[in-house]
Design goal:
0% helix; single chain; mainly beta; 4-stranded antiparallel beta sheet; disordered N terminus; elongated; 56% strand; two-stranded antiparallel sheet
C-alpha cells in the first residue's frame, strides 16, 4: 500500500509542495505552469519579488546569481531598486493547480 505524505514549507509567502511516498518511489508531479517569479536580495536581505519569464537554465536556490542592476526595478510590493546596486536573485517556478493524470 502506498501512502502519500504532503509536507508544506513556507518560503517568502509561497508554498512549496513536496510529495513523499512510503515505498521510496519518486512520484511524477504535474502542475499547471503559470510562469516564474524572481526573488531579489540586497546584502543578504530579502527585498521582494517580480513575475518574469525564465532567464536561466537552473531554477531554485541552486540557480541563484549575483548581478549589478542595469535598469531600475520596481518589485511587486512597491519597493524600488536603483541602477548600479549589487543584488542576488533566485528564480522559482510559479505553479498552479495540481493536474492529476
Amino acid at each position: 500500500m502506498i501512502t502519500n505524505i504532503l509536507f508544506l514549507f513556507c518560503k517568502t509567502n509561497t508554498f512549496i509542495c513536496i510529495f513523499a511516498l512510503s515505498n521510496k518511489k519518486q512520484m511524477e508531479n504535474t502542475f499547471q505552469d503559470l510562469g516564474f517569479f524572481k526573488e531579489y536580495y540586497v546584502n543578504g536581505r530579502f527585498f521582494g519579488t517580480i513575475k518574469c519569464e525564465k532567464d536561466r537554465e537552473v531554477v531554485g536556490y541552486n540557480g541563484r546569481t549575483e548581478e549589478v542592476l542595469k535598469e531600475k526595478v520596481v518589485l511587486d510590493n512597491g519597493k524600488k531598486l536603483i541602477i548600479g546596486i549589487k543584488v542576488q536573485t533566485v528564480l522559482y517556478p510559479l505553479n498552479g493547480k495540481f493536474l492529476n493524470k
